Fold:
Amino acid sequence: MTSKRFKKLPENTANLPAEVIEKLLPIIKKNCTTKFDESVDLSFQINNKQKKNEINIRTIVNLPGGTGKKVKVAVVCEENKSSEAKSAGADLVGGDDFIEKIKSGEIDFEKLICTPSMMIKLSKLGKVLGPKGLMPNPKLGSVTEDLKKAVTDAKSGQVEIRNDKDGNIGLSIGKKSFNDDQLIKNFHVVLDTLEKEKTNNTLKGDLIKSVFITSTMGTSYKLKIGKTI
Structure:
């Protein structure tokens, strides 16, 4: 059932002509009529169906303006690396005992980082961690000896960009409380990251079919990205 609050928001906004983010942000913020600090979210539709193969994007981006979200980070490492992980701000740190807890279903974290030598043991938990998107990955910087950098990045504004089987990518670029410059910088860093992915995948034609912007409990508007990707 549609709430009274939602009924007061503009209707059929997704059918309006595309506008640049600078024009849409004030409108998006005006539509944030809940009592909490809503996220500003992007929804991309990409051209992932190719003649020879399917494009699968999975990468990370460090948002310069941050995300406004507190991320609970866990680290699996050797005992002599524990202090480095803890001093960097990791919420949970452990070794073999911690792996056993994860194996039994104790998953009280949103990001998992591990050292290369511990990844051998963690790799056996693919059925537990894989479906939740928590399996550490060297490409994403979550399998590393540099725990300080990995934890700091995860805490300070790192988000994953990943498309589903239908070519959809959804991510947040910040909160309503962010100033417009923060959100705009985050948006353009996401576009730059997708531009690199297009080059890496030697994609023919445009990568992005469409992109919409909305807030957590708001309505959606079509975004003009300014350049073809």
